[in-house]
Amino acid sequence: ETGVTQSPTHLIKTRGQQVTLRCSSQSGHNTVSWYQQALGQGPQFIFQYYREEENGRGNFPPRFSGLQFPNYSSELNVNALELDDSALYLCASSLDSGLAYEQYFGPGTRLTVT
Amino acid sequence: GQQVMQIPQYQHVQEGEDFTTYCNSSTTLSNIQWYKQRPGGHPVFLIQLVKSGEVKKQKRLTFQFGEAKKNSSLHITATQTTDVGTYFCAGDRRLRSGYSTLTFGKGTMLLVSP
What we know:
The complex is a heterodimer. Chain A has no helices and 11 strands. Chain A has strands at 5-7, 10-13, 19-24, 31-37, 44-50, 53-57, 64-68, 74-78, 87-94, 104-105, 109-113. In chain A, strands 2, 4, 5, 6, 9, 10 and 11 form a 7-stranded mixed beta sheet that branches. In chain A, strands 1-3-8-7 form a 4-stranded antiparallel beta sheet, with no helix packed on it. In chain A, strand 4 (31-37) and strand 5 (44-50) form a beta hairpin. In chain B, strands 2, 4, 5, 9, 10 and 11 form a 6-stranded mixed beta sheet that branches. Chain B has a 5-stranded antiparallel beta sheet with strand order 1-3-8-7-6, with no helix packed on it. The N and C termini of chain B lie far apart (41 Å). At the A-B interface, strand 5 and strand 10 of A face strand 5, strand 9 and strand 10 of B.
């Protein structure tokens, strides 16, 4: 196991609602990346936080937002949920963001939007 | 933007047979990483390749990085049922911030029959 934890494990929400997902990074890691993995697809990069600052974002709309806290844990917030937001949300921590360091993935949060 | 493609999407082999998955990028990569995701699990880091033409071995697994650093392969010799899972390659992508993240391929799902 990687030491990266995520909560909750599963979540069911209704279209239009808002959701907050949480991630605790591995000890010593200052970088957290969030990914969305649809069924049968590879993880898609949402954004990355390095020392509490967002330092990169993939092709996701502004209703996907995040935070990183001083202890390097992180939150992913999604507003105005859509059916297509149903997916496995993975966070991954790494030692640094300067290079593509090994990503330590958490177990993920399975979000279902009905 | 950068795209990472993997083939085949799916392969079913008999235990003891060999298996190879190929990864191709539309742009030159700084490095490439390989991950394995078991059914119902999360991606787990296998290896990182950095140098042009690099070959690395882990027991029955052999990883190669192409001379032009635009393609890579993973070869498994004498598959076992424990090799079942989806294998992803992920290429380093430089963000506007100057930091890096990973662009994942769609993965190759491997099934091994005893």
